[in-house]
Amino acid sequence: MFDQQRMRMALYSLLRPLVFTLDAERAHKLSIAGLKALPAGAPPVFDPALAMEVAGLRFHSPVGLAAGYDKDAEVFGPMLGMGFGFVEVGTLTPRPQAGNPKPRMFRLVEDAAVINRLGFNNRGQEAALARLKGPRRGIVGVNIGANKDSADRIRDYAEGVRRMAPVADYLTVNISSPNTPGLRNLQAGGELAELLAAVREARGAGGPPVFLKVAPDLDEGDPIRIVRAVSDHGIDGIIVSNTTITRPPLGSRHRDETGGLSGKPLASLAMHQLQAFHAVTGGEVPLISAGGITDGGDAWRRICAGASLVQLYSAMVYRGPGIARAIADDLLRRLRQTRFATLAEAVGSSA
Ligand SMILES: Cc1cc2nc3c(=O)[nH]c(=O)nc-3n(C[C@H](O)[C@H](O)[C@H](O)COP(=O)(O)O)c2cc1C
């Protein structure tokens, strides 16, 4: 298995110059078509020491694929086969929508980053439902959002929960995309409580766990307020974080594009917010860390800072899908150098 993974990564580094001659969104589309055409391999067997129990779910590897790659739930099977411990599909909105005008996705190669302003382009929840029915070989989360032209965004989330709960291992309420104007206002006090109450009611008893995905661009008092709302409304975890609208120093020619920045330059902000949320939750609410995770060292530090799971997207653009398995292997190697018997014991150990 190790050799197969090394081969995949070598193959991707050979293909990369060719892939990078294409516009980023076109390359993404082609990769989805390629994955759909190939038979999905069986997921690898991970060392049991890597397993994490979160919100009643057992994750065989803590390294997941973040939302936005498999927006329409087309390739979660192949991605599980490539070695992701879980895959989050979406963001899916109640009705299909085209998203923003193209070009709207940019590789910042010199910065190992991506800027996107896709704007929830997706074929809608109904279309994804059929693909999500039936057996699958791993955990698949469904990330839901609101339509841009919706008159009642809270109702969109409630509708998404009701519709997608039967086919989701977990649901993510995404209120942190910077590319739908006004969406992030739902993170504010009164609106957040109203939203989470509606989500709880829509899920009902016996529905899947629900995670809330937040932006990294928060004020100092925000984590405490968000955690309080999450606890008050029975939300099962927080994904920290989505892309940032801030611009740390960047070197690539696309640096001034509008949109959400992800990848390496997001890492320190994502880590800072993870630490802020962990300080507030004290380990009581599971945290999932995303933002600039590029290798096993990054993943290890996030886990030690309080993350039970990690997710990535941008690093896969630069290193290919073999990165998930490579990070899991590296986590195991790091774990073996500590006094901990399982990765779960390392969660929050450096906090
Ligand atoms: C091209 C692109 C599209 C994305 N689309 C979504 C999305 O639809 N929903 C969502 O919650 N996050 C979306 N994200 C954010 C990622 O899920 C993730 O939170 C963020 O990119 C930080 O992780 P990374 O630095 O590993 O990419 C997208 C990111 C990228 C790069």
UniProtKB/TrEMBL annotation:
KW Protein transport (keyword) present: no
Signal peptide stretch: none
Subcellular location(s) per record: Cell membrane; Membrane
NCBIfam families, A to Z: PRK05286.1-2, PRK05286.2-5, pyrD_sub2
Top-rank taxon: Bacteria
InterPro entries assigned: Aldolase_TIM (IPR013785), DHO_dehydrogenase (IPR050074), Dihydroorotate_DH_1_2 (IPR012135), Dihydroorotate_DH_2 (IPR005719), Dihydroorotate_DH_cat (IPR005720), Dihydroorotate_DH_CS (IPR001295)
Homology family: Belongs to the dihydroorotate dehydrogenase family. Type 2 subfamily.
Residue intervals of the Dihydroorotate dehydrogenase catalytic domain: 50-335
Active site annotation, chain numbering: S177 (nucleophile)
Quaternary data: Monomer.
Coiled-coil residue windows: none
Protein name per its UniProtKB record: Dihydroorotate dehydrogenase (quinone)
The keyword Coiled coil is annotated on this UniProt entry: no
General function of this protein: Catalyzes the conversion of dihydroorotate to orotate with quinone as electron acceptor.
PROSITE patterns listed in its UniProt record: DHODEHASE_1 (PS00911), DHODEHASE_2 (PS00912)
Reaction(s) catalysed (UniProt annotation): (S)-dihydroorotate + a quinone = orotate + a quinol
Species the sequence originates in: Sphingomonas rosea
Cofactor note: Binds 1 FMN per subunit.
EC number: 1.3.5.2
Cofactor(s), by name: FMN
Topology relative to the membrane: Peripheral membrane protein
